Amino acid sequence: MGRYALRRLLQAIPVFIGTTFLIWFLVWGLPGDPFAGRCGEKACPPAYVNYMTEKFGLNDPLPLQYLNYLKNLATGNFGQTFNGLEIGDLLAQAFPISMKLAVVAVLAEALIGITAGVLTGLRRGSFLDNLVLVSTLVLIAVPIFVIGIVARYAFGLASVSPEAPWTELIIPGLILGSGSLAYITRLTRVNIVENRRADYVRTAVAKGLAPGRVTGVHLLRNSMIPVVTWLGLDLGALMGGAIVTEGIFNIRGIGGLLFGAIARRESGIVVSIVAILVLVYLIVNLLVDLLYGVLDPRIRYE
Amino acid sequence: MRGNTPWKVAVGLTAVALAAAGCTSEPAPPATPTDGSFIMSWTEPQNKLIPAATSETGGGVVIDALFTGLTNYAATDAKTEMANADSITSADGGTTWTVKLKSGWKWHDGTPVTAKNYVDAWNYAAYTPNGMINGTFFGDIKGYGDVTSVDPDEDGPKEAPKPAKDKMDGLKVVDDTTFEVTLSGPSNLWPIKVGYSAFMPLPDVFFTNPDAFGANPIGNGPFKMNGWTKNTELKVTRFDEYQGADKPKVKDVTFRVYSDDAASYEDVKNGTIDFQQQIPQAKIIGDLYKADFPSANSNKPVSSSSFLAMPTWLPGYNDPKVRQAISMAIDRKLIVEKIFNNTRIPMNGWVNPNMAGYKDGSCGEYCTFDAAKAKALFDSATTKPAELSIAYNGDASHKPWVDAVCNSIQTALGVPCVGKPFPTFGEFRTLVTTQKMTGMSRAGWQADYPHIENWLNPLLKTGASSNDGKFSDAAFDAKLKEADGTADLQAAQKLYQDAEAMLPALMPTIPLWHGSQQTVWSAKLQTVTINTFGELDLATVTVK
């Protein structure tokens, strides 16, 4: 398993370089001068445009710019924004907040989604099953921004304060996770229903195990593989920030930072965030893959 | 702005009215009127917090709180008032100006504010290798040409040559509190111009490390920095040794970053924050904001206006008749009513009403909708464009009005007209400044200082920095030059008005409408005054 993890980590290097290179080209490949639109309705003075162009090395050919960026990145230097702030500081400020929000959302998805899925899976066709079916349909059908704006408006919710304490993140986290929560419920339910008819469950029941143990250990553990995959990918996706939810509740996380950076052509921020996200995805994926082995002992890694 | 009293903001709002209206707010602890704090909605500055590097509102509002220049514009009528300057006088009719500073002023780090601080700051700002956005504001000081250089291939790889000098000849320190400014020609507008933030001073500590200063500026203004969490919020606190007349009555102000204006509107409503300078479009419809904030709102014209820039270098568009016809074909009143819910004011001239020297109706019939006359005028032109287009940036909400204007023109003139969106403002501006536009394009202007001159010289003079349409007319230029060089302020103003009066016949750009701003605040804020630039006057505001 150690060798497997190492091999996966080595594979991450070309993936990392490839993705950041692509993003770098895409952002800088946009038409128009990144500094031309920075003086409001006025024309930017050429002195300013020249100064900025030279300061950010935009006269160099793109591959050279990219290599310079990588070189700085290797020493932990993310570079500066156009308004002279350290990109590293911005990321250090925003990432923990987005991560907290993502954790709240994933926890809500896991707790509520799996519980509802197990309950409905065990009582197929019951009133509860139908109720959950309808409500998950609603959650999947209604986009997050509708739920978020309606929730803010209806309950007069305040935005999350700059420090983003856990308690204030509960509602935004629930809203952010609502769509996935519904999927997880359905996913768990389907797997429970299917595995209930499996031989090993019948064996467990036949040998006289308590129903709680049959469900909690035998049934649930085998039904979790697709759910864990989903949760892992979701955690990765949510770390990238939730542009909509962060906007609605003014959470100063990665999503808003990324959105603003794209709009202002701050490619330094965009590429840095993407670089970190690629790493997050790769690691989360690796963890999910390793978790398969824990859930299902039949899975072995070479 | 003079005489435009109906636009003045209601002050002295009573808290009782708000409580009766059911507005919820945290019960604030009883505080003396000279204390207290509040939070306002804000956008992250786009440049370093250095006066000459800042030209947008997010940075501008903080610069105004941290720095005080020679003069201020009065909040209600934008008249020039002496601030850090004791006097600004000229003995020779406006070429050489002697600036005397008030003594006893201090920087936030305790060092005195000296004449040298001004001279150094201005030289730094004008010197092109420093790349300051507002460097061009020093263009009328003698010796500006020596500290600037032009890049031979614009954006290309070649570097601009180093300017001959790094100090302007026209700036001379006389003693600690006096300096002398020599302009390249007489201008009586100069004392009005220096109220703009580009002319604010910088302390000696700035020059030791300009980069670090921009993230933690030390000013001489009514407030000093009190922490800045990047991309989240910036706090300032009152500078108690501040010597100016505009001493603030509140102690702490927090500028909190919002990426979504709907979120900040909700937060003003539930009392999380206290001030939103421009509310979201959705709340303007049906005056929703007035119902939400019955006695804590303002609707006020601001010093910005919209135009259509005309590509005067293209055949067809180079004929004033065509441009006049297009202008007459636009039903400004109907569009303002239907598209903007009457939050714009149809223009009939080239100058914003908040400016000294504004004259109503200076465009006359050419800015008045008349489909039949427009068609006749258009048909009488010898060469005319076969198809009209209006270019705009698609990243802001311009599509509805551009389509409406095009529709109005098409119906009146019988020539097809289409809106042409470009994805980003940056791309749009690049095409405009490099003269790549093949039709009309939207343009806007916000006043730097409240004078008619600011709407003519930078926008319409031959080769001016924001003359998007490359308009050029020798007689008009001569008239502007005459006005620029006139010593008497009143006479100069009259000459600028004469210059504006020449414009209907030339139709360099098509005036559309003046902007207005809808502002809301929480029950906590008292004595709210919105200045003519649309910003909250931090000197007079108090909190409950």
Q: Could you characterize what this model shows?
A:
The complex is a heterodimer of chains A (302) and B (544). Helices cover 75% and strands 0% of the residues of chain A. Chain A has 302 residues and is mainly alpha-helical. Chain A is globular. With 544 residues, chain B is an alpha+beta fold. Chain B has two domains: 34-250, 3-Layer(aba) Sandwich (D-Maltodextrin-Binding Protein, domain 2), CATH 3.40.190.10; 302-516, Dipeptide-binding Protein, Domain 3 (Dipeptide-binding Protein, domain 3, Roll). Chain B is built from 17 helices and 19 strands. Chain B has helices spanning 15-20, 57-66, 115-126, 190-193, 204-208, 210-213, 261-269, 288-292, 320-328, 332-338, 371-380, 399-413, 425-433, 457-460, 474-484, 489-501, 503-506, and strands at 37-42, 71-73, 80-82, 85-90, 96-101, 171-175, 178-182, 223-229, 233-238, 252-257, 275-276, 297-309, 345-346, 388-393, 417-422, 440-446, 509-521, 525-526, 542-543. In chain B, strands 11, 12, 13, 14, 15, 16 and 17 form a seven-stranded mixed sheet that branches. In chain B, strands 1-10-9-8 form a four-stranded mixed sheet, with helices on one face. Classes of the chains: A mainly alpha (302), B alpha+beta (544). At the A-B interface, α2, α4, α6, α11 and α12 of A face α7, α13 and β16 of B.
Range of helix content of chain B: 25-40%
Q: Mean pLDDT of chain B, rounded to whole units?
A: 88
Fraction in helix of chain A:
over 70%
Largest sheet geometry of chain A? none
- Low-confidence region ranges of chain B: 1-33
- The CATH first-level class of the largest domain in chain B comes to Alpha Beta
CATH level-3 fold name of one domain in chain A = MetI-like fold
Largest interface: pair, residues per side: A-B, 57 and 69 residues
Secondary-structure-derived class of chain A: mainly alpha
Distance between the termini of chain B: 30 Å
Rg over CA atoms of chain B: 24 Å
Q: Strand-and-helix sequence of chain A, N→C?
A: HHHHHHHHHHHHH
Q: Please state the oligomeric state of the protein chains shown.
A: heterodimer
CATH homologous superfamily descriptor of one domain in chain A: MetI-like
Write the CATH fold name of the largest domain in chain B. Answer: D-Maltodextrin-Binding Protein, domain 2
Computed structural class of chain B: alpha+beta
Spatial shape of chain A: globular
Total of helices of chain A: 13
